[in-house]
Amino acid sequence: MAALTVSRILHAGYVFECGGARIAFDTIFENPFSRNCHAFPDVRFDVDLIRRQRFDAVFISHFHDDHCSLESLDLLDRATPLYLYCLFDDLFDMVRQLGFTSVHALRLDQPVDVGPFRVVPREAMDADVDSMFQVRAAGLNVLNVVDSWIDDATLARLVDEAPWDLVLWPFQTMRELEVLAPTRHAPAPPALPEDALDQLRALAPRYVVPSSCQFALEPWSWYNRAFFPISYARFAQEVGAALPQARVVRMDPGVSMRLDADGLHPAPPLDWVIPVGDQDVDYVYEGNADAPPTSDVARHFPALTAAQWTRVLDYCRTGVPEKYAGLDAAGEYFDSPRIWQLSVHDHAGEVTRFRYRLDGSHATPVDAAGGPLGWTTDVPAAKLYAALALGESLTSMYMRINDAVFDAGTERELAEADVVDDPLIRCLFSDGFGAYQRAQLRRLLGLTD
């Protein structure tokens, strides 16, 4: 009987095997990945065995560093055909600089045939950033949704592609912005969004795997109780109730399943993904989980060298005003002049503060007599340095925004403000693309800043 073997690598990474051909998706062979995303459950990778693997093609859904890591790609044979969905030419240039000789841009709805596989990139919610994959092989139909929800037009097209044998569904509704300002957000209920269940009902698959978002933060991190509202048990309960005809199957890193017309059956695991400790673990959600002050968080990170600390100070003194001057206008809250306080916490929890008057495109340093505060940002020094030099992403910076009580008028206006209009976020991440991969490429090629 024709069959397709699906194996979980980690997070959104999978290996598909059929008829002697092997393809892989979003190959991450690192733990932790993206600097502080730790495999959950825990695993380690046999790098020597990974270097011996041969894939007929590797598909990457988008450029985010938890899906496209040059340090993971560095383990692959340079003749491996790579298919990337990305609207930025820079990423293709970086991959070619790493030595890959067969690098291709994916186009939405244009199939790629690899042996018995037909892989069709489908439009995700934000077509400027990411994609999802429809995979056909052995008469079977699989949808790898990766990270995104599905917009209505795409969902209608996918319903027309039914029946679906297997859907890999992003099961976590991560609170990436809420943890930046925990005192200003109510705890989210631990339930799947109703539109997610509606979409799964429309697809009506035989099997659903809770996919993507399969990580935790550092063991000490308060995020582990505040970032992830959905447990595996909750996902199985809600999806099972919404789709009684479907079976929910958990696949931990390294686990393999053989899919055929009769069902989904256990298969030999990937021998290069090695379980560490208890694998029967689940997420525990406790709302905002008594968020500790940034001074306490900062003590978990190592001290910066003198040169690194100087780089941080120079950025705060001169880099921020220079960068801010080149930014597009922020949200309506910043239409009025505001005093912004940036607090940088070192490894001992000691704080160095900077104040700026934000007025139009200007961020002018001021002293404490400059006026009442209108916005505050706290950040560990080690994380600010990592964002400047190593491509650290916002998710892992432990930034804390507006963790203060302002005057009554400011409080009323802040209720309508958007946390991502934070001046430090905008200064660090306004360029938007490829900082993490560029930092990786410099390290891999032995280059310095």
Q: Say which CATH homologous superfamily of the largest domain is assigned.
A: Ribonuclease Z/Hydroxyacylglutathione hydrolase-like
Total discrete domains: 2
Q: How much helical structure, as a percent, in the residues?
A: 10-25%
Residue fraction in strands = 15-25%
Strand order of the largest sheet: 8-7-6-3-2-1-17-18
Average residue-wise pLDDT: 95
- Main sheet attributes: strand count, strand direction, barrel closure: 8 strands, mixed
Which CATH-level-2 architecture of the largest domain? Answer: 4-Layer Sandwich
CATH level-3 fold name of the largest domain: Metallo-beta-lactamase, Chain A
Any idea what the radius of gyration is? Answer: 23 Å
Structural write-up:
The protein is α/β, with parallel strands linked by helices and 449 residues long. It has two domains: 3-275, Ribonuclease Z/Hydroxyacylglutathione hydrolase-like (Metallo-beta-lactamase, Chain A, 4-Layer Sandwich); 294-444, Nonspecific Lipid-transfer Protein, Chain A (2-Layer Sandwich). It has helices at residues 47-52, 70-73, 89-97, 152-160, 194-203, 232-242, 294-298, 306-325, 381-389, 408-414, 423-429, 435-444, and strands at residues 3-8, 14-18, 21-25, 38-39, 43-45, 57-60, 82-84, 103-105, 112-114, 117-123, 131-137, 140-144, 166-170, 207-211, 215-216, 247-248, 256-260, 263-267, 273-275, 338-345, 351-359, 362-366, 375-380, 400-401. Strands 8-7-6-3-2-1-17-18 form an eight-stranded mixed sheet, with helices on one face. The protein is globular. The N and C termini lie far apart (55 Å).
